[in-house]
Design a protein that fits this description.
mainly alpha; Arc Repressor Mutant, subunit A; about 65% helix; globular
Length: about 130
């Protein structure tokens, strides 16, 4: 399953754009810079840097996601998406490395946050 499929799955009726919104919600409604900072400050800095930099993306697990997000928010968001918290965490862990990688093609954070740019920006990120 590709990242676009995963985003569509976790986005429900809102599709890929809803998938980005779901990820944002898990991290307190924050944008990509804050999500990256949160992950980095919670022991996942090496993985995050691999997504931003060039080369292979290091993976994270659903357990990693469960460890760094608010459990209540995870339960509520998973329920809204018709998934278990474990399933939602697993999908987010699969999608985040590719989303960050695609949003940082030059190894730098984009000037506009892809989490707030909507479907048009998302389609540009995953063209090909």
């Amino acid at each position: 399953m590709g990242v676009q499929d995963i985003l569509s799955k976790i986005g429900g009726q809102q599709g890929q754009e809803g998938g980005l919104a779901t990820i944002q919600k898990l991290f307190g409604g924050k944008g990509m810079q804050d999500i990256i900072s949160h992950l980095s400050s919670n022991g996942l800095g090496q993985q995050v840097q691999s997504w931003i930099g060039r080369g292979a993306n290091q993976s994270i697990s659903g357990t990693d996601i469960q460890r760094v997000v608010d459990p209540g928010t995870l339960r509520q968001t998973a329920q809204q998406q018709g998934m278990s918290p474990e399933e939602l965490s697993r999908h987010v862990a699969q999608a985040l490395p590719e989303v960050v990688d695609q949003a940082t093609p030059d190894g730098q954070m984009p000037s506009k946050d892809p989490f707030s740019q909507g479907l048009g920006a998302l389609k540009k990120m995953f063209k090909g």
